[in-house]
Amino acid sequence: MIPYTVNIKLAARTLTGTLNLQNKTAVDWGWQGLIAQGCHSSILIIDPKTAQTIQVLERHKANVVKVKWSRENYYHNLSSPYCLRLASGDASGKIVVWDVVSGTAHCEIQEHSKPIQDLEWLWNQDASRDLLLAVHPPNYIVLWNGDTGTKLWKKSYAENILSFSFDPFDPSNMALLTSEGIVFITDFSHSKPPGSAGKKVYIASPHASPAHTKPAPAAAPAPTGAKKALNKVKVLITNEKPTAEAVTLNDCLQLSYLPSKRNHMLLLYPREILILDLELSQTVGVVAIERSGVPFIQVIPCAQRDALYCLHENGCITLRVCRSTAAPEESVQELVYDLRSQCDAIRVTKTVRPYRMVICPVNENNAALMVSDGRVMLWELKAYTGRAAANPSSGLSPLYSPVSFCGAPLGPNQKRIQDLSLNSMIGQTLIAGETPPQSSNQQEVQLKFLLTGLLSGLPLPPFALRMCPPLTTKNINHYQPLLAVGTSNGSVLVYNLTSGLLHKELSVHSCEVRGIEWVSLTSFLSFATSAPNNMGLVRNELQHVDLPTGRCFAFRGERGNDEPPIEMIKVSHLKQYLVVVFRDKPLELWDIRTGTLLREMAKNFPTVTALEWSPSHNLKSLKKKQMAAREAMARQTVSDAEQSSVESSVISLLQDAESKSETSQAISAREHFVFTDTDGQVYHITVEGNTVKDGARIPPDGSMGSIACIAWKGDTLVLGDVDGNLNFWDLKARLSRGIPTHRGWVKKIRFAPGKGNQKLLVMYTDGAEVWDTKEVQMVSSMRIGRNVNYRILDIDWCTSDKVVLASDDGCIRVLEMAMKSASYRMDEQDLTDPVWCPYLLLPRAALTLKAFLLLQPWSGTFTMDITQVDMKSVLQDPELSLLQRCLLVSRLFGDENPAITSEHLDICHDVLCESSYFQKFQLDRVHLQEVKRSSYEHTKKCADQLLLLGQTDRAVQLLLETSADNSSYYCDSLKACLVTTITSSGPSQSTIKLVATNMIANGKLAEGVQLLCLIDKAADACRYLQTYGEWNRAAWLAKVRLNPAESSDVLKRWAEHLCSPQVNQKSKAILVLLSLGCFCKVGEMLHSMRHFDRAALFIEACLKYGVMEANDSSNILLEDPLLSAFLDYARLLRSLGLREGAALWASRAGSAGEQLMEELFQGEGVTPEAIPAEEEVEPDKKSTE
Fold it and tell me: Model pTM?
């Protein structure tokens, strides 16, 4: 059991249940490490590490259909701190941008009143990180400023837009999935709407998966398997609108770019995933499901490795990894994704089906599955070393673990986190012509999914609520704020409202629970009634449940079969007696302590419409009498002589007796209850022990209709009727006062707990009100349709100032007395498990923690007090180099910043990869395109690519394939002759160069570039491409054709272009420069962008790896700006209060730093020399760059 501390102040919170169908797409896992999920009109924030809900956001009136976390690829400092920002769109077209920690909205945006189709934060420029792109149905794309809510631009398209996807390698490209096909936009920019209507392509339905193959004509034997079927539909994308019979309906479920390969896109159909190469508009790979397989719902492509997470209709998540093409024996026909791992399916029923999965974007090895019944299943991918069971027929090549950890080769005894992320679990996909690295520490791995967490919601409504007895001075030491919730399937859920977690789930009844009454802090009575038979009789179940043991027993024994249904049960204030009221049968009176029936009323007893126990009783006077009697007895037993000496023992005897009398049920105090009959007459009945006396009767009040409920506290008695009138009786002054509320049937009235607290909670069919009975006036009100969009099913007080409501959207809300639904501040909550999320800290604290984790060179060892054991041991490991440490910490903080790595990058870094690797990949890809070509257009494109890649012989073959009736037949034949006869003689070269420049000048850029490549003038070609703004093509060409020096010139020009104010993609420029090894320039740029900590740590890492030179005599860098980076970092650390760290960096900043040192240590007599330089503390690592 969890040790409880008593927290008298309960936080307002929402317990959520099943999801609405519109919530299906509303889930997102952010770089911040948290999952946001829409549930009806609320948004849950879930911490996947501890599997607990840490915030519920309430402001939407309609169902939430989309949620998106903001991106974290910016530099964090005190002015732009770590913050949790979330955008959510609902079915009425409203978008809210949240500050999640405080639960407040930054801004609200409304354009149209239809459900938002898609949302995305723009991440591709450094100027602003507040830009939010939204699809407003049917066909508008609007760019908003997500901080202020202002509209920047709006653009409409011809068809209905379903969703969009950005090209992760070139943010000016995006694709829209529309109801008819795909629209490609190539000029997307945040400053103005796209100028063109985009290039529209249609998808011919891929009805060629084996499940749909039509029987072929008898001449040809029917092909089998997905591959042959695919060969028939080579082209899936056409520019013409397909004829009606060719395309029945575009049943494409999803489109997204592959973040692991440039210019590749996937289309998801229920039975297959198509991988398209966009340069060819052609399928290069298919993942098909065999006939008996389970269809797909969703697929998420990974960025770190070429892999796909797929979700199937039975809730099974599978991981498919691209097969490496390095196998020399067979020529590759297409991209193949092999199934490497799958998790268990769930049991799918009418009401329970999987909705969506999300993948952790930082590590890509955690998945969360949302189920329609409100469950969230957290799966983690684990890598196990060891060979697979020998199964040669499967043909799967082994997966290897990578050789390095966090970008640097592993030391022999260095600790590592085995499953830190996807790319630290499996190595890169090999490509043709590359030899697999023979390395001793590269192990074969198997992947498995492990269920690491499960959150479950409330079952379907209706609910019956009852809060346990209130907190008093007597029970304060062991009080728990427990709420019992009776459900429609007969079980009772007990929630602890301090943490909002389920305390116990008890299966008590066989049918819907109608009501619950607590008889102590740890036990309650609940009743349920079955459906009536044809005589109108039911089976009544009344159960007594003891919470600590879970023991249940039928309180009425054998009674209960075939009798009129129980209407209500009422427990007296001292928990001595119980009244059970039936529909057409006199009431029963029970003694709870002994479980005996005291009285079953006579047949002529009036029909009860409402009943309440009086709070007055004679327990105190009884106790006084009893005490006096005991005292007398105690005195008689002691003789007078010993009187004085035994005074103390008498007192102890008395205390003994008193404590016994409280626990023993010897005393039966007298209690009263009142009830009304159908005419509105009020009866008063007294119960004492096992005697029942009839008291006074009060005639009905003419202004009231049929009385529906009564509440009594102190000297106030309140009656509510079926017409919405409330009648307040002051028993002391003998006054009554009737108030018509005009809200219809009063369903329930309850007084708030606490001495002298005369607030009253009233429930109607259409909402609720809180009244103050002292002043007889309304305090607050809530009504369906006016301020909430759910119907209230049940209601109770949970503390003296908070109410708890159950509503028909399947949620239970704890609200302030004002009954405004509100989100709570995250930092005010009592969580059972500690949550690691730096975003919850104050900005200053988060940055301090980060600086503290990144570098502690002032003490030779690294110390940390963070509860995460595995991370802790790795971060404390002295072998961990500076680079790896920076990468790890940015992982912990979820920064979207790529880091410097020393081995070659996987292809997902595209143009930043090493040239040789990049060239091989491109050749591989053209080879694949060649296999797949199906028309002259495709052949021409392949030939062009081959010429640019310098593969002239193969290009000539393709050119000669042109058929004689093609209009370009003559042209292509001549081109083939030209390519074969090109010699390096001066005149022919100059002629071709002249022709090429003329062609380029006259708008034939591609053809001119080809000619220049033929005569090995690729550097000129790159320059022309850049002049005409084709920066990406130029970078591509430089990578595949130029020697390193020329290539780096081209890329440096590109980096300058990226830094220019109109492009403003400095962060990308930094990556380009990094890949070229211009380390000093990167250091300067980081510093000029005021990223002081990054600059200083980057330079430090370069020094340590020996890539930059330091002046040995004084340990001072040669470049001046780099010195100031150290100085500024020292100032930053000082502003965060890390003085020793500041001193260290200041001491390394040369003369400028000495001044800061003096400021730091004024009047302390500490000399800067006392702080060792880092080189003395840590042995220098060998260069690995």
Answer: 0.73
